[in-house]
Amino acid sequence: MADLEIEGKTVEEAIDKGLAKLKCTRDDVKIKILDEGTSGLFGLMGSKPARVLLSSGNGSSANVDLDGAATKAKKTVSEILKLMKIGFSDIISSKSGEGVSVEMKTSDGSLIIGKGGQTLDALEHVVNLIVNRDEATRTKIDLDTEGYRRRRLETIENLVKKGVAQAKRTGKPFRFDPMPARERRIIHVLLKEDASVETFSEGEGGFRKVVVKPKNS
Predict the structure, then answer these.
(1) What are the start-end ranges of the E strands in 1-84?
(2) Using one digit for the tens of pLDDT, what is the confidence trace for 157-173?
């Protein structure tokens, strides 16, 4: 897999576009933020796109201090939750494969998760930016609470089975409902080994969705 430098309105959008183009996940690449970009005046004048470099190889270098990353992630999450005035009983951070997993135990998990997981995704994005500013702890940080990620993955897997079945039955493209970047990537990855269909994303911003269609249709 060749290295890929790509732009987007935000860092997350640039990463999403690159991963979709390479048909891989964050675990398959090293991500270097070249420029975080700027929104400019009213999001228009003077704006500058974010730029990232996706490199072949594992998402984490062998030299990454995963223990340090786990400690920093836990501290960062704790400070953010305090600023949000969200109480928590515990924050558990641990090494997970080549990255770090953080589980938040709180009495108000729904507030952290937000509608469609948007708050949890935003929190995870911020934590990744903070932890990854230091090259020594640059790795992938996954956040979860109340097993939301696991439950959502099961839901997406069921949706994918139904969508693919309908696409094959009708011979027409099937469009999933709009999803956040993280969940769109899951669909791309789940279907990348299925030679009978192809996937792509369409739409902009919060309306962006995955389309699956039978090949040669």
Answers:
(1) 4-8, 29-35, 50-56
(2) 999 999 999 999 999 99
